[in-house]
Amino acid sequence: MAERRIAFLDVxxxxxxxxxxxxxxxxxxxxxxxxxxHLVYLCTxxxxxxxxxxxxxxxxxxxxxxxxxxxxxxxxxxxxxPMPRPDVDRMVGYFEEHGIHYFLQTDDAVFASDGIGEITDxxxxxxxxxxxxxxxxxxxxxxxxxxQSVIRYRPLSEVDLDEVAKSTFISTASDSLDRAQAxxxxxxxxxxxxxxxxxGSNGEIALLGVNKGAAILEVxxxxxxxxxxxxxIGDSWNDAEMFDVVGTAVAMGNADPELQARAGRVTxxxxxDGVWNAFVELGLV
Length: 285
Prior knowledge:
Elements: E1 6-9, H1 24-35, E2 39-43, H2 53-58, E3 62-65, E4 70-73, E5 76-80, H3 85-97, E6 101-105, E7 110-112, H4 116-137, E8 153-155, E9 166-171, H5 176-184, E10 188-192, E11 201-207, H6 212-223, E12 230-234, H7 240-245, E13 248-251, H8 257-263, H9 274-281
Parallel strand pairs: 1-2, 1-12, 2-3, 7-8, 12-13
Antiparallel strand pairs: 3-4, 4-5, 6-7, 6-9, 9-11, 10-11
């Protein structure tokens, strides 16, 4: 067997497309790599409670969630960096002051501010259309998208503000992302959203220093593995720090061209056997 390696895989746009579809070759690639003795970890901006059941069923050795705020090895939590309460209060206050709709994530669930449902109606209408088109591309008869498997957020009134890891926001203003970076960038990391939500602009906000790359380094230290043996595969800007720390960075074919350039190595798109092709090229399968 080749030298044992560890692969960190993003979820949306890397394993999943449009929140629901997984290329069969992706499942085969992950399970075969693990059978060959390699480790495969999820590395996602989603919280553990918001992972699609079909992703969980694939089987992984561990997971980095919430963009690096939490991590598990098997069922054991090994990293926990919730956002300090004063920072949560500042971030929420900023959203409320500027009339921005938002989600707050703990590791257990996603909580939505009032009005999110109205904004996301058009998003899910478009998602249904894309879902059907992608099923046809995979040679599968189109079926209705099960929104119960996609919409998994709870009312904001139920959130424990001491357990918040990150936020995602939606705004009708086209400059909200740039404004949030300018206004909050002294303490927070503000990036474009990894899920194509509607609105003029949307983004993700985490505490400075809490990102996928930092979490990967923590996980590798715990596992006693070298970053040179690590592989990172992703498609979104919350994968940038992951690309910076792993020995082999791979951008999906559906990633932003600038992100592809940052990775230096590019595979095919999410439903065009992207993970499988990357694993073959890198000798994991």
